[in-house]
Amino acid sequence: MKTNLTEGLYPFHLTPEQEDRASRLHENSILIDLLFQGPLSPQAIPAQISENIREACEPYRDEPMVYSGMPSKIIHDMAARGELPAFKEEWYRSGITAGNRQLNISDIEGLVTSMGEIQRQFDANDWLVKVLKAEDIRAAKSSNKKAGIVTAQETDGLGKNLALLDALYHFGLRVLQLTYNNQNYIASGCAEQANGGVSNFGARFIRRMNELGIIVDTSHCGKQTTMDACRLSTAPVIASHTGVEALFGHMRCKSDEELQAIAGTGGVIGVFAMPWFVYQDPNETTIEHVLDHIDYVVRLVGVDHVGIGTDWPMSDVEWSLVYFKEHIAPRIGFAKGDGPSTETVKGLEKYSYFINFTRGLVARGYSDEVVQKIMGGNWLRVFEQVWG
């Protein structure tokens, strides 16, 4: 199945020669989205299925956390049973070679459940392979398969048990964020008033991540935590999904000092496509605004330290996203009304529109070599260094 090169094209006003070049680059390059909530999105899920999911979830409405999380679980369960062909179709149309499959480590119950859900994706789809080494991504590209990278955005469920970190590595965990917005045993998140940095236990935790070969992710970390992680880690540090504070002063964006520190470790900054975090009006955020953040990072730290980690849209249904914004987001560190919700970046309403990144980079004058680095090559370099 080839990438769909006609639907959803953003009006970059490329010449026919530029369109051909972008198409060739997109088809032939290794493309990596390191915060890949797809391959589905509300626009890719049929309305009747969305309504059926609502009916199935309704008995749990008095349990907000359960109710909010159920639609995504049902969607992935349907995909594993082969009842949502769009799961494969959208991934292949996107052209994305490798994207993360995300563990929930908020607590032990969530960890065990999400391990089963992720493993089921690999077991149910012979076209989807679990990534343990960087070569697995190259092999997936050469055999027209897709690669799933096991990652997690929080560590709370591990407590202070480093043996669990070892166990997760053996399951396949390869990228781990130190903290999600708030304070934990390891460090301070970006929503904490106290800019506390990495704790003594956190330093041991990072050292064990380095020993195992798990990449240190600082996306939702506070500034001092990011700076400490870059100082403490002996391997490249990343921000899998973030933006530029100088362009939009949101807590989820990184300062120039943080971006330079990450690059100084040999790491990569993944720019996200979150409408609320890259531009002042989420209803008018376009892929051009996302590309502005990419341009800024390129100018600040160079072309070898920029990647993509979209983080949006979700594999969810619209009514569930509205509920999440109203009832769940404030519980996990976001200010009331401060995303995420149903808005999408114009030009990335569906993952099958991912070619707009390649087209946009071509439109902005980047060479083939640099486009390939930003679209996946830089991530692959870090993977090869940390995982072998």
From TrEMBL:
Cross-referenced InterPro entries: Metal_Hydrolase, Pept_M19
Pfam families on file: Peptidase_M19
PANTHER family: DIPEPTIDASE, MICROSOMAL DIPEPTIDASE
Protein name: Dipeptidase
Source organism: Paenibacillus anseongense
